[in-house]
Automatic annotation (TrEMBL):
GO CC terms of this entry: mitochondrial outer membrane
SMART domains: PGAM (SM00855)
This protein's name: Serine/threonine-protein phosphatase PGAM5, mitochondrial
Catalysed reactions listed for this entry: O-phospho-L-threonyl-[protein] + H2O = L-threonyl-[protein] + phosphate; O-phospho-L-seryl-[protein] + H2O = L-seryl-[protein] + phosphate
Highest taxon of the lineage: Eukaryota
InterPro entries on file: His_Pase_superF_clade-1, His_PPase_superfam, Mito_Ser/Thr_phosphatase
Source organism: Colius striatus (Speckled mousebird)
Gene Ontology annotations of biological process type: positive regulation of mitochondrial fission; programmed cell death
UniProt keyword Transmembrane, yes or no: no
Amino acid sequence: RREPLALINLKKKNDETGEEELAARLDHCKAKATRHIFLIRHSQYNLDGRADKDRTLTPLGREQAELTGRRLASLGLKFDQIIHSSMTRATETTEIISKYLPGVRKISTDLLREGAPIEPAPPVSHWKPEAVQYYEDGARIEAAFRNFIHRADVKQEEDSYEIFVCHANVIRYIVCRALQFPPEGWLRMSLNNGSITHLVIRPNGRVALRALGDTGFMPPDKITRT
C-alpha cells in the first residue's frame, strides 16, 4: 500500500476544472529517498543457557560484536537508528556495536525475536519445530517484514541508513520476502555471527541486495555460525 496509486483518492476531483489532476497528485505521493537497511546477526552466545536471560554472549561473541561495530563505523555513514530484537544476545550485541556509533538511538522490539518463520522447502531432518510454532512465529516475523522493510515515506527527503540487529532465521526470511523469492527457501542460506546483510530500497520500491552475511572484516579464527 505504498505504491503512489494506492495513496490517492481517484474519485476526488479538482474543484475548479472538475478534472482529476492525476499526474500532479501521483508525483506528490512518490517517495524521494532511498533506504539502506543493514541486517546484523547477533554474535556467538552461550548455547547452554536454559532461559533467554542466560543466553549471553561468549567472550568470542563480544569480540565479534566489537569487530562488527568497527566495520559499521568505518563505512562513514550517518546511521539514523538501531532497531534490535529484545532477546538477550541481540541486545548485548547492540550495546557493543553502539559504542562505535555514538548518538545513534536504539529501539528494542519483540517483532524481531528469533523464531520459525515458515516451513522450509525442502525440509531438513535436524530442525523440526512444532507446526503451531510456524503459525505463532511466522505471523510475527511477517509483521516485522511489513513494518520495517518498505520504501521511504513520501515525507522523507534524504537517504537513510538503518541498522537492525536480530537473528539468522529472521534475516533469511526478510531477504527472501524483500527480493520476492519463495520464502520457503530461507533455510538454504547460512549467516555467520556478527555478519552484515545490506538491502537497498529505492524510491520506486525496487530492492537490491548489496551484501549477504558479510564477515570479510573478521579474521578467519573469529568466524562462527552457532
